[in-house]
Amino acid sequence: QRRLAYEQSVAAQPPPAAMKSSDAAADAHKPETKEAVHRAAEKAPGQSEAEKKAALEAKQHAAREQAARAEASALETDIKGALQRALVGTLPNVDVTVVEDGVLISLTDAYDFGMFAIASAEPRPATVVVMENIAKILAPRPERLIVRGHTDGRPYRSQTYDNWRLSTARAHMAYYRLVRGGVDEKRFERIEGYAD
User: Fold this and answer.
1) Pick from 10, 60, 122, 168: most CB atoms within 10 A?
2) CB burial class (10 A; 0-12, 13-18, 19+) of residue 183?
3) Going along the chain, which residue ranges are E strands?
4) In sequence order, which residues have a C-beta less than 8 Å from that of residue 196 and are 6 or more positions away?
5) How far apart are alpha carbons 175 and 166 in whole angstroms?
6) What is residue 9's predicted lDDT score, i.e. its pLDDT?
7) Model's pTM, two decimal places?
8) What pLDDT sits at residue 156?
9) Which of 170, 173, 191, 177 is nearest to 118 (CA)?
Protein backbone atom coordinates (compact mmCIF):
# COMPACT_ATOMS: atom_id res chain seq x y z
CA GLN A 1 0.00 0.00 0.00
CA ARG A 2 2.89 2.33 0.67
CA ARG A 3 4.05 1.68 -2.86
CA LEU A 4 0.59 2.32 -4.29
CA ALA A 5 0.41 5.68 -2.55
CA TYR A 6 3.91 6.45 -3.77
CA GLU A 7 3.01 5.54 -7.36
CA GLN A 8 -0.01 7.81 -7.24
CA SER A 9 2.11 10.72 -6.06
CA VAL A 10 4.74 10.12 -8.75
CA ALA A 11 2.09 9.88 -11.45
CA ALA A 12 0.69 13.22 -10.34
CA GLN A 13 4.07 14.92 -10.69
CA PRO A 14 5.01 16.48 -14.04
CA PRO A 15 7.91 14.74 -15.82
CA PRO A 16 11.36 16.36 -15.47
CA ALA A 17 12.37 18.79 -18.22
CA ALA A 18 15.02 16.38 -19.50
CA MET A 19 12.30 13.83 -20.35
CA LYS A 20 10.81 15.38 -23.47
CA SER A 21 10.24 12.25 -25.57
CA SER A 22 7.43 9.78 -25.02
CA ASP A 23 9.99 6.98 -24.47
CA ALA A 24 11.60 8.92 -21.66
CA ALA A 25 8.20 9.68 -20.13
CA ALA A 26 7.28 6.01 -20.32
CA ASP A 27 10.59 5.09 -18.63
CA ALA A 28 9.68 7.36 -15.70
CA HIS A 29 6.75 5.05 -14.86
CA LYS A 30 8.76 1.79 -14.88
CA PRO A 31 9.08 0.21 -11.42
CA GLU A 32 12.92 0.34 -11.49
CA THR A 33 12.88 4.05 -12.24
CA LYS A 34 10.27 4.74 -9.59
CA GLU A 35 12.35 2.92 -6.99
CA ALA A 36 15.40 4.95 -7.97
CA VAL A 37 13.42 8.19 -7.63
CA HIS A 38 12.15 7.00 -4.25
CA ARG A 39 15.69 6.19 -3.04
CA ALA A 40 16.91 9.58 -4.21
CA ALA A 41 14.06 11.31 -2.39
CA GLU A 42 14.95 9.46 0.81
CA LYS A 43 18.48 10.85 0.62
CA ALA A 44 17.25 14.42 0.76
CA PRO A 45 20.04 16.83 1.70
CA GLY A 46 19.90 18.26 5.20
CA GLN A 47 17.92 15.36 6.65
CA SER A 48 19.60 13.42 9.47
CA GLU A 49 19.46 9.65 9.71
CA ALA A 50 17.18 9.96 12.74
CA GLU A 51 14.79 12.20 10.78
CA LYS A 52 14.79 9.75 7.86
CA LYS A 53 14.13 6.84 10.22
CA ALA A 54 11.31 8.75 11.97
CA ALA A 55 9.75 9.66 8.62
CA LEU A 56 9.92 6.05 7.43
CA GLU A 57 8.40 4.77 10.69
CA ALA A 58 5.59 7.31 10.40
CA LYS A 59 4.87 6.17 6.84
CA GLN A 60 4.86 2.52 7.92
CA HIS A 61 2.57 3.29 10.87
CA ALA A 62 0.17 5.20 8.62
CA ALA A 63 0.17 2.31 6.13
CA ARG A 64 -0.61 -0.21 8.91
CA GLU A 65 -3.45 1.97 10.20
CA GLN A 66 -4.87 2.37 6.70
CA ALA A 67 -4.69 -1.40 6.15
CA ALA A 68 -6.41 -2.06 9.50
CA ARG A 69 -9.20 0.41 8.68
CA ALA A 70 -9.68 -1.19 5.27
CA GLU A 71 -9.83 -4.66 6.88
CA ALA A 72 -12.35 -3.44 9.46
CA SER A 73 -14.50 -1.89 6.74
CA ALA A 74 -14.43 -5.11 4.69
CA LEU A 75 -15.31 -7.17 7.77
CA GLU A 76 -18.23 -4.85 8.58
CA THR A 77 -19.50 -5.16 5.01
CA ASP A 78 -19.23 -8.97 5.21
CA ILE A 79 -21.10 -9.14 8.51
CA LYS A 80 -23.87 -6.76 7.45
CA GLY A 81 -24.29 -8.60 4.15
CA ALA A 82 -24.52 -11.98 5.87
CA LEU A 83 -27.09 -10.68 8.35
CA GLN A 84 -29.22 -9.07 5.65
CA ARG A 85 -29.29 -12.37 3.77
CA ALA A 86 -30.09 -14.40 6.90
CA LEU A 87 -32.70 -12.19 8.56
CA VAL A 88 -35.75 -10.40 7.29
CA GLY A 89 -36.60 -7.14 8.99
CA THR A 90 -34.68 -5.19 11.57
CA LEU A 91 -31.09 -6.03 12.40
CA PRO A 92 -28.84 -5.08 15.29
CA ASN A 93 -26.52 -2.14 14.85
CA VAL A 94 -23.16 -3.46 13.59
CA ASP A 95 -19.99 -1.38 13.82
CA VAL A 96 -16.49 -2.64 13.14
CA THR A 97 -13.74 -0.28 14.22
CA VAL A 98 -10.00 -0.33 14.76
CA VAL A 99 -9.03 -0.04 18.42
CA GLU A 100 -5.72 -0.32 20.25
CA ASP A 101 -6.16 -4.07 20.86
CA GLY A 102 -7.17 -4.89 17.27
CA VAL A 103 -10.54 -4.81 15.58
CA LEU A 104 -13.74 -4.34 17.60
CA ILE A 105 -17.00 -5.83 16.34
CA SER A 106 -19.80 -4.10 18.20
CA LEU A 107 -23.37 -5.38 18.11
CA THR A 108 -25.93 -3.18 19.81
CA ASP A 109 -29.69 -3.16 20.09
CA ALA A 110 -31.58 -1.17 17.50
CA TYR A 111 -34.78 0.73 18.30
CA ASP A 112 -36.84 -2.27 17.22
CA PHE A 113 -34.28 -5.06 17.67
CA GLY A 114 -33.31 -6.28 21.11
CA MET A 115 -30.72 -9.03 21.33
CA PHE A 116 -31.84 -10.12 24.78
CA ALA A 117 -35.01 -9.72 26.79
CA ILE A 118 -34.80 -7.15 29.57
CA ALA A 119 -32.80 -8.50 32.55
CA SER A 120 -32.06 -11.75 30.69
CA ALA A 121 -29.02 -13.46 29.16
CA GLU A 122 -31.22 -15.71 27.02
CA PRO A 123 -30.75 -14.62 23.41
CA ARG A 124 -33.76 -13.94 21.24
CA PRO A 125 -34.09 -16.29 18.22
CA ALA A 126 -32.86 -13.59 15.82
CA THR A 127 -29.77 -13.08 18.00
CA VAL A 128 -28.96 -16.78 17.64
CA VAL A 129 -29.04 -16.35 13.85
CA VAL A 130 -26.87 -13.23 14.12
CA MET A 131 -24.24 -15.06 16.18
CA GLU A 132 -24.26 -18.10 13.88
CA ASN A 133 -23.57 -15.88 10.88
CA ILE A 134 -20.83 -13.97 12.63
CA ALA A 135 -19.26 -17.27 13.71
CA LYS A 136 -19.13 -18.41 10.07
CA ILE A 137 -17.22 -15.24 9.18
CA LEU A 138 -14.85 -15.41 12.16
CA ALA A 139 -14.16 -19.17 12.12
CA PRO A 140 -11.57 -19.18 9.30
CA ARG A 141 -9.75 -16.10 10.63
CA PRO A 142 -6.67 -16.52 12.86
CA GLU A 143 -7.07 -13.71 15.41
CA ARG A 144 -7.44 -14.18 19.16
CA LEU A 145 -10.88 -13.15 20.44
CA ILE A 146 -12.22 -11.28 23.45
CA VAL A 147 -15.96 -11.28 24.10
CA ARG A 148 -17.39 -8.34 26.03
CA GLY A 149 -20.92 -8.20 27.40
CA HIS A 150 -22.88 -5.09 28.34
CA THR A 151 -26.24 -4.07 29.74
CA ASP A 152 -28.11 -0.82 29.33
CA GLY A 153 -28.19 1.92 31.96
CA ARG A 154 -31.09 0.52 33.97
CA PRO A 155 -30.03 -0.90 37.34
CA TYR A 156 -30.93 -4.59 37.53
CA ARG A 157 -31.09 -6.38 40.81
CA SER A 158 -32.75 -9.75 41.14
CA GLN A 159 -31.95 -13.04 42.82
CA THR A 160 -30.07 -14.04 39.68
CA TYR A 161 -28.53 -10.88 38.24
CA ASP A 162 -27.23 -7.44 38.87
CA ASN A 163 -25.72 -5.42 35.99
CA TRP A 164 -22.26 -7.00 36.34
CA ARG A 165 -23.51 -10.59 36.43
CA LEU A 166 -25.95 -9.93 33.61
CA SER A 167 -23.29 -8.44 31.33
CA THR A 168 -20.96 -11.35 32.08
CA ALA A 169 -23.74 -13.88 31.44
CA ARG A 170 -24.48 -12.21 28.09
CA ALA A 171 -20.78 -12.35 27.17
CA HIS A 172 -20.72 -16.06 28.04
CA MET A 173 -23.82 -16.63 25.92
CA ALA A 174 -22.16 -14.87 22.97
CA TYR A 175 -19.04 -17.03 23.48
CA TYR A 176 -21.18 -20.17 23.56
CA ARG A 177 -23.02 -19.20 20.34
CA LEU A 178 -19.75 -18.41 18.54
CA VAL A 179 -18.22 -21.75 19.55
CA ARG A 180 -21.39 -23.59 18.47
CA GLY A 181 -21.13 -21.71 15.19
CA GLY A 182 -17.65 -23.09 14.49
CA VAL A 183 -15.14 -20.75 16.13
CA ASP A 184 -12.36 -22.72 17.86
CA GLU A 185 -12.69 -22.21 21.61
CA LYS A 186 -8.89 -22.01 21.96
CA ARG A 187 -8.96 -18.65 20.15
CA PHE A 188 -10.85 -16.97 23.00
CA GLU A 189 -8.53 -14.98 25.20
CA ARG A 190 -11.06 -13.54 27.63
CA ILE A 191 -14.78 -13.20 28.34
CA GLU A 192 -15.61 -9.93 30.07
CA GLY A 193 -18.65 -8.25 31.60
CA TYR A 194 -18.83 -4.45 31.60
CA ALA A 195 -22.29 -3.81 33.05
CA ASP A 196 -23.63 -0.56 31.61
Assistant:
1) 168
2) buried
3) 93-99, 102-108, 145-149, 188-193
4) 150, 151, 152, 153, 154, 163, 167
5) 14
6) 21
7) 0.67
8) 67
9) 170
Q: What is the CA radius of gyration of the chain?
A: 25
CA distance 79 to 167: 23
Q: Using CA atoms, how far apart are residues 124 and 36, in angstroms rounded to an integer? A: 60
Q: Are 64 and 85 in contact (CB under 8 A)?
A: no
Q: Are 106 and 59 in contact (CB under 8 A)?
A: no
Residue among 88, 92, 162 at smallest CA distance from 121: 162
Question: CB of 183 within 8 A of CB of 139?
Answer: yes
pLDDT in tens, 56-113: 889 998 998 898 889 889 989 999 999 999 988 878 888 888 888 788 888 888 877 8
Q: Alpha-carbon distance 154 to 149, whole Å?
A: 15
Amino acid found at 2: R
Say if CB 193 and CB 167 are below 8 A apart: yes
Pairing relationship of beta strands 93-99 and 102-108 according to DSSP bridges: antiparallel
Q: Which amino acid is at 32?
A: E
Residue 132 is predicted with a pLDDT of: 94
